[in-house]
Amino acid sequence: MSAQVGRENVVLQSLAQIGACGLFLLRILAALPRSLRHAGETVRQLWFVGAMSLIIIMTCGLFVGLVLGLQLYYVLAIFGGTSATGSVVALAIYRELGPVVTGLLFAGRAGTSITAEIGLMRATDQIAAMEMMAVDPIAYVAAPRFLAGLIAMPLLCCVFCAMGIFGGHLVGVSWLGVDNGTFWSNMTANVDLWKDVINSVIWKSAAFGAVISLIAVFQGYTTAPTSEGVAYATTRTVVASSIAILALDFVLTAFLM
Amino acid sequence: MSQRKSYAVGTGLFIVLGFAALAYLATQTTSVANSHQGVSYTVDAQFANVGQLKEGAPVKVAGVRVGQVQSIALEPGKDVADVTLSIDKKYAQIPTDSVATIYTSGLLGDQYVGVQFGGAKTYVANGGHIGLTKSTQPLEDMLGKFLGGGSAADAIGGTYSVTANFTNVGALAVGAPVKMAGVAIGSVASVKADPVKLNALVTMDIDKKYSQIPDDSAAAIFTSGLIGSQYVAIQPGGSPNSLKDGDQLILTQSAVQLEDLIGKFLVSGSPNSGSNAGNNGNNANNGPSNSPAGKH
After folding, report:
1. Which chain A residues touch B28 with a CB distance below 8 Å?
2. Which of A43, B145, B158, B203 could bridge across to B208 with cysteines, CB 3.0–4.6 Å?
3. ipTM more than 0.85?
């Protein structure tokens, strides 16, 4: 699989990958009604990709909020605008940092393990065995993981944002002495429920969740059935997800703002 | 089976936590009032200039939000902006001779429409029209009269140093430019507190080629732009003698607090009536007219 290929072959191969990925998405969507029979499996995956990612998401959210509060305070102090710390922290986290950093962490924490798990299933012929037993592997393996990622990302992003605000408040108000009332009133005056919370936090993170879990499931499902193949697939999941998140972020921002 | 149950409980906890976080974000960090849209009626107003007013900007009476700007469009064929205000039904009693003004909240804040009630007994109806309007106040125009602006001082070869005492140097920093007629002629070498006079002693290095500055010139601390840095402006006097190395400028005008300045302007309506904040230069703007040559 990893044989040297010509440059034009690389382009063609990437195009073929994207195309295969799109077709795989259609197969998953077609299998979604059937996967409802395996709702328990979806819950188990939700536990695995969502609940188990909580610790890392909360820690990172807290530190992003802390450093954002600190940096913005010093920059805003130049213009005598430290009272805007709250609103700028909130807007920065809601609009960009929340969805994007959560997405990158999710790709690293959950995406890789999905790819590795499905890749090993493929390598050890478990998927072939399922087909033998007339269990649809798309409905039983791929769809629940895709669904779990789609549901877990917005929830994780909300937790990340809440921790970020908490961190910004901790630095801004408790440490640097921005007035508590000013911090909150400035924030509520500038944060818009639809534009910032619903559009940015929810829709963006849901889109990222769908893309990450699609890439993770696809890479695992189509991996070469060797230990080397699984390793490559896991790496590709992280690389492709990261690029997809950042590129999609630009497009979504342009659309949703 | 018990293992599956613990998955379910953990997942449930996770989902509850996620939605709790969402509820927190939606209720605690946004203002429900901003997006609240109850029963409302619309009123027109024409402005000559809406400045940075945006759709969705608040409409306020006595500082209380009563509605929002629904749309801003250009009146066909005229150079006036037609602003449609959507006002809450419960604030239906706006007199027909009320004045709509575009204000800015704070120095750098967003703009909003303020409505001052008139005395008429009739009220503006749905689809009605507020005839009396005041356009956006161009703060820049207002302040431009006070504040200069420009670039930092060039690198300078030979310099001579001149001192001046100020009661308040504001945020003047070492290295800030010294300007005459808006052109940089030197830089601030040091800013120290004078232990005897209890004010600030500023030493300025001025380029040798500007050696013809009259010794009764005045020094003032200005701000470049609204949030720019401060600099020292030299306003030439009329004395035949020139400044020499080590001289002191007697006529000074200290840094003016922007807040005071704006407050004063808004109250008095004229930039010339603002009193001088300097320690002993009582009218630095026309230095040569009334002051003796100041030499140490």
Report:
1. 184, 188
2. B158
3. no
